[in-house]
Amino acid sequence: MRLYEFSSSKSPIESSLIGILSFLRYRAHNFNAPLDISTTELVSMIQKSGVPFSYEALVSANKLPTIQNLISSFDDKTVKLKPVGDEFDKTDPVINTDPVDGAAPSTDQPFAEPQPQPQQQMDPQQGGNGRVPKLNRVDQMAKQALSRRQ
What range does the domain containing 56 cover? Predict the structure, then answer.
């Protein structure tokens, strides 16, 4: 089967292009690689998926909103992909906004590290092995089942 045969709702070119561009974006994100690829390499990858593709097809496919969400810019030499979504621009002073009132946090102070929660210690005298409480009902049922087997 060819890659485009898995999606019948979109054209074969759009399906292949979305799949390959998404793969490249996440691969670049996972390996901290640059988000750009040679146009000839991209065209070659899509052609290897079994779809006739060219630079002109990329230009016409870039008019689709699904493709525009993946490509930030391109020319005849390189295609620059958009970030995955959880990255942020390091030059932007506003990194995150408060979802309640939309106010930006202060960038003067670093983000607070989460504090570890103290573990609740169980007393072995109260039952259990010191980590989890003893479950009396379950223990009773297990003992009854064991006595029936003997």
Answer: 3-81
Distance of CA 57 to the CA centre of its chain: 28
Q: What is the pTM of this model?
A: 0.52
Residue type, 16: S
Distance of CA 75 to the CA centre of its chain: 27
Q: How many CB atoms lie within 10 A of CB 27?
A: 10
What Cα–Cα distance (Å) separates residue 11 from each residue in 4, 6, 29, 49, 51? Answer: 8, 11, 27, 14, 10
What are the b/e assignments for 52-88, b being 16+ CB within 10 Å?
ebeeebbeebeebeebeebbeebeeeebebeeeeeee
Structural domains counted in the chain = 1
pLDDT digits (tens, 9 = 90+) for 10-43: 788 888 899 999 999 989 888 888 889 999 999 9
Cα distance between residue 130 and residue 60, in whole Å: 66
